[in-house]
Specification:
Blueprint (H helix, E strand, L loop, with lengths): L17 H18 L2 H17 L3 H17 L6 H13 L2
């Protein structure tokens, strides 16, 4: 299963609809929670955090990224952890 809100962008494509992407992440997160899919929950939190950061919603970004980091650590998902930590550090540095 993959978060349906992860939309690849190219230089020629228009930016994704941020509101729709947020809604899709929330839908995926709700489903992942219902199914007990903790890795997908972590990815959804990371995606939401990145999305919030890109729109200047720093507090929401920090909360979502912190949730992702906590889940990645609990599951020992060391590949994704540094990426989430770097995104969180960037939100702290920019605000």
């Amino acid at each position: 299963m993959r978060c349906s809100s992860e939309v690849p962008s190219t230089p020629t494509s228009p930016p994704p609809d941020v509101q729709q992407a947020g809604a899709r992440y929330q839908e995926a997160l709700t489903l992942a929670e219902a199914l007990g899919m903790r890795p997908l929950q972590a990815h959804c939190h990371r995606g939401l955090g990145t999305l919030y950061a890109s729109t200047g919603q720093r507090e929401q970004a920090r909360a979502a990224l912190s949730a992702a980091i906590a889940l990645y650590r609990a599951m020992d998902m060391t590949f994704w952890l540094p990426q989430a930590e770097a995104a969180l550090a960037q939100t702290r540095a920019s605000g």
